[in-house]
Amino acid sequence: MTKYDITQIQVGKNKVGIVGLRSTIEEMATDFVQKPDDIISAEFLHRLSNKNYIPNKVREIYGRAFVREFRKYLGQPYEKERLEMLEVKVLGPGCAQCDRLENEVMEVLTEMNLPANIEHVRDLEEIGTYGVWGIPALIINDKAVFVGKIPPKSEIKKHLEDAWDS
Hints:
This protein is α+β, with helices and mostly antiparallel strands. Helix 2 (37-48) packs across helix 3 (59-74) and helix 4 crosses helix 6. A hairpin with a 2-residue loop joins strand 5 and strand 6. It contains six helices and six strands, in the order ββαααβαβαββα. It folds into two domains: 6-74, no CATH class; 86-165, Glutaredoxin (3-Layer(aba) Sandwich). The longest helix has 17 residues, at 96-112.
């Protein structure tokens, strides 16, 4: 594990940084691929509790979040958690195009009065984990909606509305 192996995930209503999640998923991928969710959850909690503070009151919620990330990584079906706000990510190293896309998304969200967590991912290694082949890219609720271009505000609005209504 490198010192940068910190992954932000949705745990209940909060975004939480988890140390070692990516490497733990990779370690468990082969042996736990066919295991039931309760076994996977227990193993993640066991392995990650050493490096992360996981309060006893919410261990079950963390466990479900770990299983969701594991299933996502494997490309298996998983139970999506209903968000109380949109998760919006702009992928790009911070060039003028990427910054413009981020600003336009913020303007549209403000006009629509929608709650959202907005993150601008600038790290090229992390951008690579999203499987997109161009920048800037716009990710809404873990789905790439635009790659390699800045769409008109009307299209940004349509995708935000669709994501909010789903």
